[in-house]
Amino acid sequence: MPKEILEDLLKEYEQKKIRAELDLEKRKEKLYTKIPALKNIEDELNNLAISTAKNILLNNNNSIQDFKNKVKELNNKKLEILKNNNLNINYLKPNYECKLCNDTGYITKNNYKSEMCSCLKQKLLNISFNKSNISNLDKENFSTFNENIFSDKINIEEYKYNISPRQNIINIKNNCIRFVENFDNPETKNLLFTGNTGLR
Ligand SMILES: [Zn+2]
After folding, report:
1. Most exposed residue of 9, 12, 126, 160, measured as fewest CB within 10 angstroms of its CB?
2. How far apart are CA 68 and CA 49, in angstroms?
3. Half-sphere exposure of residue 16, counting CA atoms within 13 Å on the CB side?
4. pLDDT tens digits, 32-47
């Protein structure tokens, strides 16, 4: 997978994330004009964060628990106001497409290591899937396979085989079906198709 594909996808993710956050800002602005009490709570939360940061720098150890309690109290007030206005509690959160990675494409595990999110992995898979012919699977599969386009005449001189091309392709098809049916068996060997470029 070329590096550019991942880079392009990550650019897309960044745009998506910014869009969700701008969208939230617009939503907030509208709502705060309608319900100024919510704006007051947000201002209070911001001021609280600044004063707590200052207190921590001044080694005031009581301030963290104090801060947590006050934040909880203010958030509860906020939720109450939202509820009274028939608004969802998520109304004041960015509406990210992926709730796991918040549209960053990566998640942080418990060991603080970051890992590609399943949404990004899926996008990369889709791209490689579409690039391969596998995406034609609904048209080209075992049930639409037509051995009759192969000759049933044995021609040792041309094919160096004492079976007809039709019988040969039927054998290949049966081998492929066996391979698929036993795909999860560790004893199963890989299939290798060889031939000139462009042959199907
Ligand atoms: Zn994700």
Report:
1. 160
2. 10
3. 17
4. 999 999 999 999 999 9
Q: Cβ–Cβ contacts within 10 Å for residue 117, how many?
A: 19
Ligand 1 centroid to Cα of residue 15, in Å, is: 14
**103 C-alpha to ligand 1 centroid (Å):** 6
Do residues 1 and 128 make contact, with C-beta atoms less than 8 angstroms apart? yes
Report the phi/psi class of residue 189: left, alpha or beta, with left for phi > 0 and alpha for psi in -120 to 50. Answer: beta
CA–CA distance, 26 with 118 (Å, rounded to integer): 29
Nearest 10 degrees: Cα torsion 15, 20, 25, 29: 130
Tens of pLDDT, residue by residue over 135-194, are: 677 777 888 889 999 999 998 888 888 899 999 999 998 988 888 888 777 777 777 777
Instruction: At 114, list the tokens.
Output: 């970051």
- Phi, psi at residue 106, to the nearest 5°? -135, 145
- Among 120, 107, 144, 150, CA closest to 13: 120
Ligand 1 geometric centre to CA of 78 (Å): 28
CB burial string 160-173: b at 16+ within 10 A, e below: eeeebbbebbeeee
* Contact (CB, 8 A) for 78 and 92: yes
Instruction: Say if residues 56 and 50 touch (Cβ distance below 8 Å).
Output: no
